[in-house]
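Holo prediction — guanosine-5'-monophosphate.
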Amino acid sequence: MRELEERIRREGRVLGTDVLKVDNFLNHQVDPKLMVALGHEFAMRFADAGVTKVLTVESSGIAPAVFTALDLDVPMVFARKRKSITLSADNYTADVYSFTKQETNHIIVDKRFIQPKDSVLIIDDFLANGQAAQGMMEIITAAGANLVGAGIVIEKTFQKGRQLLNEANVRVESLARIEDFVNGQVVFANED
Ligand code: 5GP
């Protein structure tokens, strides 16, 4: 998606060898107009998939996920990372290792919000090693729901997340695909 690639090129900062910082428009400050555009693009790509729920993980997946859900006219559910006293005891849980934070998070979804009749679309901000997506897949499987695919804002093709999802036969739609960082610059997968 050209608009997204231009924003990454203009405002993204490469940290080390494998992390992209996009806190100007996605991970801290959020550009709502860009989120509307991302949501619309995901909704178009999964328009015929019969989605009944959009699922993400707090917090950075929420903005693109909510606009996707708005466009698809379905609810958005975000898996929570911390237990809250307001959360019921009847939950699905999975462990997700975050390589950017280098910690394992316990992600939690109340059983009322993903049901066997649901067709669930996963949305996330980044696909790196696929741990967040795998955690969400475990929850969808535990709920007996149908997984229709994963919509990823920024995929890093040099990490192993895509392979993991391909092996699980999950349809993946990424709006920007980064194949490398060279001298602090982003190289998109569709470039020569
Ligand atoms: P995975 O679970 O696929 O290894 O990583 C996905 C999660 O890690 C995303 O939800 C995102 O929060 C975080 N993440 C992975 N790579 C990056 C990155 O390059 N930049 C930022 N800002 N977050 C990342």
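READOUT: The longest helix spans residues 32-45.
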